[in-house]
Amino acid sequence: MRVLVLGATGYLGGHTAEHLRARPGVRVLGASRLPASSPAAGPAAVPSADLAVDLATVPVPELAALLAELRPDAVVNCAGAVGGDALRLTGVNARGPAALCAALREAAPGARLVHLGSAAEYGPGEPGRPLAEDHPTRPVGLYGAAKLAGTLAVTGSGLDAVVLRVFNPVGPGAPPASLPGRLAAELRRTAPDGVVRVGDLSAHRDFVDARDVARAATAAALAPERLPHVLNIAGGRARPVRDVAEGLARAAGFRGRIDEGGETPARSAAVAWQQADVTAAARALGWRPRHTLEESLADLWREREPGGPRGEAAR
């Protein structure tokens, strides 16, 4: 079975490609917007991409020709942008999935498409009420709106497609743009008894290990039957963001102070509470999260130590 992973040199894409490669009978084809030879594609531990393609800009006929040549049985789209200007955010997260669907309809209409969406599509949750897949989507910023547009392009494509709506990923390879990755970097350059300055950590989020996301993406790509249009992939529990900071501090042996007087990103401040209902993923994929938040944070901290978990570049 031939599986094309878009964003294969990134965070979630790297984990997904690695997990798929471990499955017997699966040949993984990796694609990234950066050439495999580019230093910016990530450290040597990251699996290289077989080809370079940028979904934000590639013409649909060119992408269709590429897909026709590769003949994938499944495509896993892990390409995404969490930062950048409006053109980048909408190009990768909205235009990209729409272009991919158009190209697949032309070149490989029988291929399974697995697209990684985001919890940001939901917007704020209500404390004590997990978000199921039929919950209204009310994104509070451009990132969430662009991801929702991408989801709508996929679910309305008529293809054999599923969107995995991923909540807050954590674990080895967490990129510097994420809170866990940023905190780990701050702790590495701060004295054990120093001060780490962060924003407000009182919001509640649902964290999921990137390796569990990879397991879900693999299960979705290889599932023999059609799947629901959208499935939540999360830990299934709302945790204070403060738990991430304190968990990393314990893993690092940090004895100093975590100061919450720093600036809080507007997108984070607007969403005080989120928790996913993951029963649909359990039913459709036989999937449940395996890693606890504490395990994910410990492995994130250990990833650069000899024998520690492999890290990947930011997607």
TrEMBL record:
Residues 3-234 form the NAD-dependent epimerase/dehydratase domain. It comes from the Bacteria. InterPro entries: Epimerase_deHydtase, NAD(P)-bd_dom_sf. Gene3D superfamilies: NAD(P)-binding Rossmann-like Domain. Belongs to the NAD(P)-dependent epimerase/dehydratase family. This is NAD-dependent epimerase/dehydratase family protein. It comes from Streptomyces macrosporus.
